[in-house]
Design brief:
four-stranded antiparallel sheet; five-stranded mixed sheet; globular; mainly beta
Length: about 120
């Protein structure tokens, strides 16, 4: 799987019914107060980031956090929102797996799940 990111995301703005373009997403590994930034990317025109991690060798079992900077996304659209960012923390047990973390977003709520 070298060359393919083992962790990806897709953000949909449910108020518009469209992909959320331009959301900064930070991926970190750690726990408690100690987190190390792995990467920081911005969603493309389809609301996706397919290259959060350079390759499978970069991922190890452990706790990861993906933080979506949702406040600046809504502010740029002139929309007042309740959540300035959304942090999704997840566990990776099998470092050889694929992990797709979608985010369904609105100004006053969000939902996520392990996608495929």
């Amino acid at each position: 799987m070298t060359g393919k990111s083992p962790i990806t995301t897709h953000v949909l703005d449910t108020t518009k019914g469209k992909p959320a373009k331009g959301i900064v997403v930070r991926l970190e590994r750690g726990s408690g107060e100690k987190w190390a930034v792995i990467s920081e990317k911005t969603t493309d025109g389809d609301g996706r980031i397919g290259d959060l991690v350079s390759d499978q060798k970069s991922i190890h079992p452990g706790t990861y956090r993906m933080t979506f900077e949702t406040g600046s996304y809504f502010k740029a659209s002139g929309v007042k929102a309740f959540y300035p960012h959304v942090a999704v923390t997840f566990e990776i047990e099998d470092a050889s797996g694929q992990y797709h973390i979608p985010l369904l977003l609105s100004p006053f709520g969000y939902s996520t799940y392990r996608g495929s």
